[in-house]
UniProtKB/TrEMBL annotation:
NCBIfam families cross-referenced by the UniProt entry: DRP1
Highest rank taxon of the organism: Eukaryota
InterPro entries with a match to the protein in the record: DENR/SUI1_TIF (IPR050318), DENR_C (IPR046447), DENR_eukaryotes (IPR005873), DENR_N (IPR048517), SUI1 (IPR001950), SUI1_dom_sf (IPR036877)
Chief localisation class: cytoplasm
One Gene Ontology term from the biological process aspect of the record: translation reinitiation
The keyword Ribonucleoprotein is annotated on this UniProt entry: yes
Limits of the SUI1 domain: 108-179
Region (Disordered): 54-97
Organism: Coptis chinensis
Keyword terms of this UniProt record: Cytoplasm, Ribonucleoprotein, Ribosomal protein
Localisation: Cytoplasm
Protein name in UniProt: Translation machinery-associated protein 22
Assembly description: Interacts with the 40S ribosomal subunit.
Length: 199
């Protein structure tokens, strides 16, 4: 730079007219600062740092105000944003083990099994999913079909109702009449290992 002052030359401040190195003792050092930064950077090196840090503050403020993070990366486009939120929702559903929590499907499953050779039992599963108290349902079923009915724990530790005897084909009407919240379309039979809709 041609204007860079030589060490031996006295540089006079363009603002206060004092020699540049006396500016800080002059009447208005603040006003001198911009001129000094421009014309006598060697005399007051601190000024440049000061100015730079102020400038940096300003820049980071501007970056923040437009939503750009300080590391300079632009915010993702809105399409990516919605994708991110979808991912978050999916993560919420995931249990710690990585399993996806699935809400139990509201359905009643009726299965007829033959135990102890010719003794038939009708198993009713899923009434609790409709807010029905199983002990209450068990009593009603036993009374209706004049047989033994009890709440027992099934193989998966889920409670079910075991009704003695083959009542499978009478039970659907009884369920839908007794508990109108259970639609016939939500009732299934297990026949030969296959799930068959009752409706
Ligand atoms: Zn000055």
């Amino acid at each position: 730079m041609a204007e860079k002052p030589e060490p031996f030359r006295v540089l006079y401040c363009g603002v206060c007219t004092l020699p540049a190195e006396y500016c800080e003792f002059g009447p208005d050092f603040e006003k001198c600062k911009p001129w000094l930064i421009q014309n006598a950077p060697d005399v007051y090196p601190d000024l440049i740092q000061e100015a730079n840090s102020k400038e940096a503050d300003k820049v980071s403020e501007q970056l923040q105000s437009v939503g750009i993070s300080s590391d300079g990366t632009a915010p993702p486009p809105s399409s990516a944003n919605s994708g991110t939120s979808t991912t978050k929702k999916e993560e919420v559903k995931r249990l710690p083990g990585g399993k996806i929590k699935k809400k139990d499907k509201q359905e009643v499953v009726i299965e007829k099994v033959v135990r102890n050779k010719r003794k038939c039992v009708t198993i009713v599963k899923g009434l609790e999913l409709f807010g029905i108290k199983l002990s209450d349902a068990s009593k009603k079923l036993g009374k209706k079909f004049a047989t033994g009915a009890s709440v027992v724990k099934g193989p998966t530790e889920k409670e079910q109702i075991d009704v003695q005897g083959d009542i499978a084909y009478d039970i659907v009407e009884f369920i839908t009449t007794t508990w109108p919240d259970v639609p016939e379309t939500a009732i299934y039979f297990i026949e030969d290992g296959r799930k068959v809709p009752a409706a």
